[in-house]
Amino acid sequence: MEHLGNPSSGPLPELIWLRKMIVERALTRGDYVLSGGVRSDYYIDKFRLFSDPQVLRRIARMFVPLLTEVNPDLIAGTELGGVVIATAVSQLSNVPMIAVRKSPKAYGAFADEYVEGPYHQGQHVLLLEDVVTSGRELLAAKARLEELGLGVTPCAVVSRGLAPVRALIQFSLPRGHAKTDN
């Protein structure tokens, strides 16, 4: 389910633009093992999108309808790509942000903690991830935040179609689709 757009009215221009950016800048074809261990014949290198400040800002603006709907106290991002998009959304919205690590920090004043940044029990968090396939890491981060007494709405920029989470855009290609070099 795409967050933006009404299926009956067709995709919004922003979703058309995002699909185009993914294909033109971030899509590579080959034989890849994704983070959850699943094999794929394509890979979305989100840093080819996020490294361009104009593209990153435009993607961050796509979260405005969700910010209005969810009205979060905090924006959170998962390590590493989620932190990039969460930072951009936080800057755009003036909503403070926190970062959620994959494993606890092993050093410093707050060793053994998964969450970086201030939060208070009872706050509502919009948790952002970049690209999800199964959603395993995003759902693990959600569980960590809920253990701290935070309410969490998870969302990704791109879902490859297997994750049970909301995303700005669903993006999948049939196996063996025409080769795209990047």
Task: Describe this entry's structure for a reader.
By secondary structure, the protein is an alpha/beta fold. It has one domain: 3-Layer(aba) Sandwich (Rossmann fold). It is built from 6 helices and 8 strands. The strands form 2 sheets. The protein has a 6-stranded mixed sheet with strand order 5-4-3-6-7-8, with helices on both faces. Strand 3 (74-78), helix 5 and strand 4 form a beta-alpha-beta unit. Helix 3 (53-61) packs across helix 5. It starts with 12 loop residues before the first helix and ends in a 12-residue tail after the last strand.
**In terms of quaternary structure, what is this?**
single chain
Number of helices: 6
Mean pLDDT: 86
**What number of structural domains do the residues give?**
1
What shape does the CA trace take?
Answer: globular
By DSSP, the count of extended strands is: 8
Share in β-strands: 25-35%
- CATH fold-level assignment: Rossmann fold
Distance between the termini: 27 Å
Rg on CA atoms, Å: 16 Å
Largest sheet: 6 strands, mixed
The ordered H/E elements are HEEHHHEHEEEHEE
- Class from secondary-structure proportions: alpha/beta
Report helical residue fraction: 25-40%
What would you say the CATH architecture is? Answer: 3-Layer(aba) Sandwich
Low-confidence stretches: 1-9, 177-182
Regarding CATH, which class? Alpha Beta
| Spatial order of the strands forming the largest sheet | 5-4-3-6-7-8
